[in-house]
Each structure stands twice: as structure tokens, then as C-alpha cells.
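DM from R.C. (forwarded with permission)

"hey, sorry to bug you on a friday — could you get me a structure for this? deadline for the figure draft is monday and I only need the backbone to look sensible"
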Amino acid sequence: MSSFGGAAAAPAPAPKAAAATTKSAGGGGGLADVFAGIKSIDQSSGKTAGLNAVSKDQQTWRKEYSGGAKPAPVRKAPVRKEEKPTKPAVCELQRDKWVVEYQSSDAICNIEIASTKQQCYIFGCIGATISITGKCKSIVVDSCKKSKVLFDSAISSCELVNCQRMQLQVRGSVPSIAIDKTDGCLTYLSEECKNVTQFVTSKSSEMNVAYPDAKGEMLETPIPEQFVHMLQANGKMSSEVSELYAN
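My reply, with the result:
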């Protein structure tokens, strides 16, 4: 009995040693060894072998990337401003002379001739349309651009000087049309003008004449700009239309 009542036996240290062994195995060799093995595997099958790492300044998807050639900037076509006269428009009868000046593309001037003594002077119009009704003495169109002049008849002549891209229409008759220092002029003649109207041209280009044929259809022919000149034995100069207008 005395032996049972003595000091109790000390517990065995074996469980603590086993726990320590388990902890050491989980922290040092377990999962760490697994992850290390995964990293060592080449998942690209050798495709990325030998490639260098790309720095941030070479990554094109970044906003701050500025390397490489920049695309050429897209240039917008220049917008052409509509040319307009710089002075107030005028359309009035001054004694026996109709004065039409500085009319623009939104203007249509209708002039009614009351007497054959009246004449018309048209100046500085851009893109305008001037219609002259009745028979006047003469018509002068000076320094106009892209304008249309329509008239019934003129007793003496119709003259264009210092103009560009003009259209002229004769509804009745005119004995003479003078074109001087003008680039681009299309003249529409009536049936009454055929074999009657003469053209006097100088220092001008791109001149054409439209006229009705026997069927009433409009035909167009150019006015020659090039001539061949030759000095004759008698000292006189002969001039002929260039072969460019032979056909």
C-alpha cells in the first residue's frame, strides 16, 4: 500500500517530440517543396526560352509608352472659303447706263431695258446671275468671276475683259463679242446669231462657243488660242490657225 501512496511516476515526453517533428515537417519540407517543384517546370514548352524580360518603358499597352515611330497625323482637307465681293452691291440706272457692281452668288439681277440708248456696265461680280431683257446699245462685263450674263440683244457689241470662268448667253442677236484678258468663257449663241456674230479675242484662254444645230441640239466648239505666223517675201505677216484646231 505504501508503494501506491508514494510519488506518482513522471509523464512520458514522447508526444511532445512527435508534435515537434510534425511541425518541422510541415513548415520546412512539405508545401515549400511542392511550390518549388511547380516553379521549376517550363510551362511554355520551351517557347519562352532565351527571352529577356520586358521593362515598363517597352510595354506598349501602357499609357506612358512613347517609344517607336508615331503614326503620321491625319491632315484635314482645307476648307475653301466662298469668295465674295468686298463692297456693297449696286444695281441701278444712272442716266442711260445700267450699273451692276459687286453682286454675289446669292444675287439674281433682272434688268429691263426701256430704250436702245441704254447700255449696261457690269463690274466686280462673283457668282452672280444678271439677266438683261430688251435690246440695249452695248454690254461691258469687267473683272467678274464665275458669273452668268444673259441678254436678249445688243446693237453694237458685248465685251468681256479681265474675267474668269464666265458664261454668256445671247437669246436674240449681237453683231460682235469681244473677249480680252479672260480665262474661261462659254458663250451660248441663238439660232439668230449663226453666221452673224463675230468674235474678237486677245490674251484669253479656255474659250468655247455653244450653238444649235439643224435639229436644235446644242453643239460646242473651241475658239482657237494658238496661231502660226509666217513672214512673207513681201514683208507682210500671214497668220493661220494651228493644226491643233484642224478637227
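R.C.: lifesaver. The first strand starts at residue 90 and ends at 94.
me: no worries. Helices lie at 14-39.
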